[in-house]
Amino acid sequence: MQTTENGIATRLAQRAVAKREANYASEVRRLLDAGLEVMRRCGTTSRPRVADIVAAAGLSNEAFYRHFPSKEALVAAILEEGTEILRAYLDHQMAKESSPEAKVRRWVEGVLSQAVDANIASTTLAVLWNAGSGGEGLASGHSSINPSLATLLQAPLADLGSADPELDASLASHATVGRLSDCLLRRIRPTPAETERVASFCIRAVTPRAVSDP
Q1: CA pair distance 97, 123, nearest whole angstrom
Q2: Of 10, 23, 106, 119, which is most buried by a Cβ count within 10 Å?
Q3: pLDDT tens-digit profile of 73-122?
Q4: How far is Cα 107 from Cα 103, in angstroms, rounded to an integer?
Q5: Nearest 5 degrees, angle CA 116-CA 202-CA 122?
Q6: 172 and 76, same structural domain?
Q7: Closest to 102 (Cα-Cα) out of 163, 147, 153, 173
Q8: Is residue 213 part of a domain?
């Protein structure tokens, strides 16, 4: 009898924990979505307050601080999620190609495409602008974006002859994401010719060149 009672108690406790975890996950999702939407609406004219975000999410300050110690932590989480989505997209696009040159071009195209669609561009700019207040994004050279995206370039750059694929991938990522920031801030769309120029720059930087006799 004691064993049965303990078994029931354990199952009931597990159900309660699972329900609480599901509720918490729902709260986090609502806060992330609300934060993104409020930042998109504010653009680069003002930074939203925690009160604005919880109002949009239909939650309380208590719910917000249960999951995030500050607004900057929420913005960092939004930036991290966006980076993961972009990284998955780039990985998928690169997988369509067989040559390292084509993979690098797909990567550059995918990054700069964030400035092509007006809605995506405005949202991306708003997130990066808000992240700048916390040491991320536009103000700090994309310290959290570059490492994640750059890892995708290491293998193709190594195949192209890079002597230091990790460093070269980081440099290529900084150059490309930096150009993306320029386009977002100036609200211009990168042209196909410009995208090809950036890709060619990244490829030429690691391609061994024959040394002519003096």
Answers
A1: 29
A2: 106
A3: 999 999 999 999 999 999 999 999 999 999 999 999 999 999 999 999 99
A4: 6
A5: 20
A6: yes
A7: 153
A8: no
**What tokens appear for 136 in the block?**
């991320």
Q: From CA 63, how far away is CA 3, in angstroms rounded?
A: 37
Instruction: Say how far apart CA 26 and CA 43 lie, in whole Å.
Output: 26
Give the closest residue to 107 by CA, choosing from 177, 212, 32, 30: 177
Q: What is the pTM of this model?
A: 0.82
Total domains, the chain: 2
Distance CA 10, CA 16 (A): 10
Q: What is the C-alpha to C-alpha distance for residues 107 and 109, in angstroms, rounded to an integer?
A: 5
Instruction: Give the closest residue to 132 by CA, choosing from 184, 95, 167, 194.
Output: 184
99 and 9 co-located in one domain:
no
DSSP string, 100-139: HHHHHHHHHHHHHGGGTSHHHHHHHHHHHHHHGGGT-GGG
